[in-house]
């Protein structure tokens, strides 16, 4: 078959196949054009998931008659001052969006430039342009796209339901709105209720306001500000406390020079930064903004501009990890579970008193089953039985020194231990309940890491080596990782076909069940990928050892031990969560407790 030049209409439709994948792609390109035009407000309307109609209206600079005539031609753009593709400072620069959309849909553009006496309108249908005619528009540009893919019916078969396509459009607009909190956005359509986001103030406070409006109040309440800078690269934004997690990584947003992108770089960096805080199957919520010289990043590697390539990817990844770790360590005692507001919602009774019954006039609490008290949820009779725990494990009020006012400390003074598991402490303005095992687990873990960084973990030689029997595959796995285990003071060696001998253990763990520890370590090692960095493998070992070396639930603690644990938690970074991401304590403010009993 001879070589031939393709017709212009076919070329445009091929380009449309790269740029216009679905209605959300059209919205993305048009909203980016509106942002580049300097708009202060952008309104989006969709119908039929975007396939029937898409309307974008902005109050930007608009286009002149001459610009409008060129705007729908291929590779015509106002976004590049010269031919230097390494100095891209705008979102749209390829000059393919409008002609690609016009080749597969009915496109209408109405625009007015400040220098023009009136607006101009242009229509494109299946790639055919109509003459430019005068129109009415006060300012900016209005673009309407209807009957998407009518010129390429086969593409319609690949679209999903209207609701699914509408949700994809919302996600695109959400990302662009997060990137530009200084711009007001409005979004409406028959699939969802209208939503609008007002322009926010400049700075971190305004950015957090916009992120909270989009990601929800939970994110706003537990967001931690992060920032890191080196060699002209700045990473800043907000990360949620470890208690706010998702089942996937869709809650992680990366913006490069104001451009929303999807990059595997952030997923790996965020996983590394949160590895000490979260279970393996949970993912945090973060919004990170990377700012760097446009010559240090290539935004031209993907037709839809959803991916970028960094000149120094290692530097960017390192800054992301450093910013997140520094922020999490700084706010290590903050989690949503520690917050009084989140905790009180779990305790608040939900009941519906009769209109003719006033609890203030009642001489006593109404008996269960009384007609005057209808329990809806919360402290129901069956749930109440769980709180009938008998006498506390320890009551140390009599032992509390009168001169030591520990209630002024952040975690207060220990007052009692219940169920041999939880320490109840009194603070100046409330109370704190501590999970003794989870808290001590974090303390041991941080000590192991600190010892490893200094001069290695101190060992204790067993007088009689402990022999642990296992299957041969497990023994081989442990012996192969012997050097890594030795870094933490655990020295093992093969002892026949199906056994290992434990000769030394970390002194920090004290007396420990070597068999149970080795079995847990072997289970974790079976899940390791050889590509997993050595540092991460060592941290997995440390976390497992910390779990086995910490105070167990069920152990009765002395008063001085309880207070010592509280003081260590105050001085230890990241003590708000255990190694598995669970909170180590919950706090109740006195004002919230008073609300439970109707005192305020």
Question: Can you put this structure into words, describing what you see?
Answer:
The chain is of the alpha+beta class. It folds into 3 domains: 8-197, Heat Shock Protein 90, CATH 3.30.565.10; 204-330, 2-Layer Sandwich (Ribosomal Protein S5, domain 2); 400-600, formyl-coa transferase, domain 3, CATH 3.30.1540.20. 34% of the residues lie in helices and 24% in strands. It contains 19 helices and 28 strands. The strands form 7 sheets. Strands 1, 2, 3, 4, 5, 6, 7, 8 and 9 form a 9-stranded mixed beta sheet that branches. Helix 9 runs parallel beside helix 10 and helix 14 (472-480) crosses helix 16. The longest helix has 19 residues, at 436-454. It is elongated, with a radius of gyration of 31 Å. The model is unreliable at 350-357, 359-387 and 529-534 (pLDDT under 50). Residues 211-329 form the DNA mismatch repair protein S5 domain. This is DNA mismatch repair protein MutL. GO terms for molecular function: ATP binding; ATP hydrolysis activity; ATP-dependent DNA damage sensor activity; mismatched DNA binding. Residues 414-557 form the MutL C-terminal dimerisation domain. It comes from Rhodopseudomonas rhenobacensis.
């Amino acid at each position: 078959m001879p070589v031939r030049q393709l017709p212009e209409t076919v070329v445009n439709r091929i380009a449309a196949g790269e740029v216009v994948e679905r209605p959300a792609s059209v919205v993305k390109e048009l909203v980016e054009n509106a942002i580049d035009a300097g708009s202060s407000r952008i309104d989006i309307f969709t119908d039929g998931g975007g396939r029937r109609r898409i309307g974008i209206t902005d109050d930007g600079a608009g286009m002149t008659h001459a610009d409008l005539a060129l705007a729908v031609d291929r590779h015509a753009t106002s976004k590049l001052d010269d031919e230097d593709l390494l100095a891209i400072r705008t979102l749209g620069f390829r000059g393919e969006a409008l002609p690609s959309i016009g080749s597969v849909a009915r496109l209408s553009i109405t625009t007015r430039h400040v220098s023009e006496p009136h607006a101009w309108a242009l229509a494109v249908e299946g790639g055919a342009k109509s003459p430019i005619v005068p129109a009415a528009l006060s300012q900016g540009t209005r673009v309407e796209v209807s009957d998407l893919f009518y010129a390429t019916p086969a593409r319609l078969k690949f679209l999903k339901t209207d609701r699914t396509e509408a949700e994809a459009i919302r996600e695109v607009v959400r990302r662009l709105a997060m990137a530009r909190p200084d711009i007001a956005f409005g979004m409406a359509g028959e699939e969802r209720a209208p939503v609008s986001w007002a322009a926010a103030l400049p700075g971190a406070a305004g950015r957090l306001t916009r992120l909270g409006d989009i990601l929800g109040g939970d994110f706003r309440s537990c967001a931690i500000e992060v920032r890191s800078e080196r060699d002209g690269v700045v990473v800043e934004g907000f990360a949620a406390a470890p208690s706010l997690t998702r089942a996937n990584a869709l809650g992680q947003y990366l913006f490069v020079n104001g451009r929303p992108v999807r990059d595997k770089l952030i997923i790996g960096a965020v996983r590394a930064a949160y590895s000490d805080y979260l279970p393996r199957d949970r993912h945090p919520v973060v919004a990170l903004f990377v700012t760097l010289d446009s010559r240090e990043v290539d935004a031209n590697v993907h037709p839809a501009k959803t991916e970028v390539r960094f000149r120094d990817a290692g530097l960017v990844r390192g800054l992301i990890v450093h910013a997140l770790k520094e922020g999490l360590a700084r706010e290590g005692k903050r989690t949503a579970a520690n917050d009084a507001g989140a905790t009180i919602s779990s305790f608040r009774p939900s009941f519906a008193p009769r209109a003719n019954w006033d609890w203030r006039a009642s001489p006593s609490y109404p008996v269960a089953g009384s007609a005057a008290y209808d329990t809806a949820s919360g402290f129901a009779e069956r749930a109440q039985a769980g709180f009938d725990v008998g006498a506390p494990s320890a009551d140390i009020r009599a032992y509390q020194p009168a001169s030591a006012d520990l209630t002024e400390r952040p975690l207060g003074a220990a007052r009692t231990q219940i169920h041999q598991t939880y320490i109840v402490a009194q603070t100046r303005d409330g109370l704190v309940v501590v999970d003794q095992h989870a808290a001590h687990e974090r303390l041991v873990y941080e000590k192991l890491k600190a010892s490893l960084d200094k001069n290695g973990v101190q060992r204790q030689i067993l007088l009689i080596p402990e022999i642990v029997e296992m299957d041969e595959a497990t023994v081989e796995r442990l012996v192969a990782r012997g050097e890594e285990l030795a870094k933490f003071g655990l020295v093992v060696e093969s002892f026949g076909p199906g056994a290992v001998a434990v000769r030394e253990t970390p002194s920090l763990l004290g007396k420990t069940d070597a068999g149970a520890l080795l079995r847990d370590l072997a289970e974790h090692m079976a899940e390791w990928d050889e590509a997993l960095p050595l540092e991460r493998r060592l941290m997995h070992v440390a976390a497992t050892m910390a779990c086995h070396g910490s105070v167990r639930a069920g152990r009765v603690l002395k008063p001085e031990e309880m207070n010592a644990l509280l003081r260590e938690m105050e001085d230890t970074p990241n003590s708000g969560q255990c190694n598995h991401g669970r909170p180590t304590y919950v706090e109740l403010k006195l004002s919230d407790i008073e609300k439970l009993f109707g005192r305020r």
